[in-house]
Amino acid sequence: MPVLPPDASGASTVQEVPPAAARPARPSTRGGALDFLRFAASLLIVLYHFGAEGPMRIERFSQVFSRGFLATDFFLMLSGYVLGRAYGASTLSGRISHGRFWIRRVGRVWPGHLVVLAMMAALVLVLNAMGTDAHKPSRFAWDQLPVQALLVHAWGFNSDGWNLPSWSLSALVVCYAIFPFLWRAADRIRHPWVLPLIGAAVVLAFEIVARTVFDHALADLQFRYGVIRALPMFILGVCLARTVDMDWPSERAAKALLIGGCVLLAAMQPLDRYALPDELIFDLPCLAAIAAIVLGAGRLPVRRPQAWIEEGAKLSFALFITHILVGVIYWSAVHELIDTVPIGIGWQWLMWLASFPIALGAAWLFHTYIDQPLQDRLAPWLRGR
Fold first, then answer.
1. Which run of H or of E encompasses 205?
2. In whole angstroms, what is the distance from residue 364 CA to residue 314 CA?
3. Which SS3 state, helix, strand or coil, does residue 52 take?
4. With pLDDT > 70 as the criterion, what percentage of the chain qualifies?
5. H/E element holding 35?
6. Per-residue model confidence (pLDDT) at position 1
7. What pLDDT is stored for residue 30 in this prediction?
8. Distance CA 273, CA 45 (A)
9. Which site among 18, 130, 296, 344 is 20 to 30 Å from 92 CA-CA?
10. How many CB atoms lie within 10 A of CB 23?
11. Rounded distance, CA 48 to CA 73, Å?
12. DSSP element (H, E) containing 243
C-alpha cells in the first residue's frame, strides 16, 4: 500500500501521527462491545448450522437465519483487527519475528483443531463398528481427512466435510503469514481516514475477482477457495486496527459508527438477498455496517468491563470448532429417537432448543480441560523459550 501524498496545497489535511513503534500501543481491553459481538457471532454460526435440524428449517421464519456468512465476515474482519491491536507494535519494533509470530498464531488454532478432528474420526469409527452411520454420513469422506488435518483445505483442495467451519482457520493460516507485511504497509499511511477506504477497495477488488474467475459472489465461494474469501476481510480488519491505533475517529464519532452500523445491518436483514437484482446490493451495505461496528466498538474504551462477556468471548473459539462434533453426536441420537418413538412436534422443538446449551456446555468443557491446558503446555515452545 503506497504512502498517501499531501494534498495539492502541500499540507496534510489530517495531523500526522508518529509511527506505532514510536509510541505506546493502546492497551488491549476485554469484556466490552467487541467481546460481546464476538460471542454473539459464534452463537449465530451455531444457530445457522443447527437450523436445519429442527422440525422445520428456521429460515422459513426469517431470512436472517440463513446468513451465517455475515457472522463469518465479522470473525474474519475481527481476526485482522485483533491481531493488529495485539501484535502491530511488536512486529514493527522487531520484538517478535515474522516466523515466530506465524508459529504462535498457528499454534493457537491447530492443536485444538486436530483434537476435535481426531474426536470426529474416532466417533465415526465407533459408529461404523456398531453398524450405523454418523448423522449425514456423506460429510465424512476419509480421503478428505488428511487435508483437513493439515489445515490446507481452504487452499484450493476439495474438502467440504468433517469439521465444516475449519475452512476459515485454514484460510487464516495464510493471513497470519502475511500479517507483518500488511501492518508495515498500513503503518506508512499518515492519514487514518484513508485506511478504511483502502480496505474497502481491497474487498471490492476481491469481489471482482470472485465474480470474474469463479462466477460467484465473494460470500458464495466454495470452502476450497476460502483463502480468497478470507483475505479481503482480514485486510480490512488490519486497516481498521491501524486506524484505531492512530486515535481515529473521535469517541463521539465512534459511538455514531457503532449505532449506525447496527441499525444498517438490522435494516438489511428483512431483504431477500437472492430476490435482488444483484447480491452486491445486499452484501456491500452489510459489510460496510460490520466494518462500522468493528471500528466503532474497537475505538470506544471499555470503562465497565463485564466478566461474563469476557468469558463468553474466550469460549468463542471452542464453540466454533466443537459445535459440529456436538451436533453429530446429539442429532444422531435425536433423529434415531424420533424415528423409533412417536414424539410430538412440541417436544421436537424443545429438543432442538436444548442443543444450544448442550453445545455451550461442551465448548466450556473443551476450553477448560483440553484447549487451555494444551495451550499452557505449548506456551513455552511457542514463545521460543
1. helix 194-213
2. 9
3. helix
4. 91
5. helix 33-50
6. 37
7. 67
8. 18
9. 296
10. 11
11. 14
12. helix 226-245
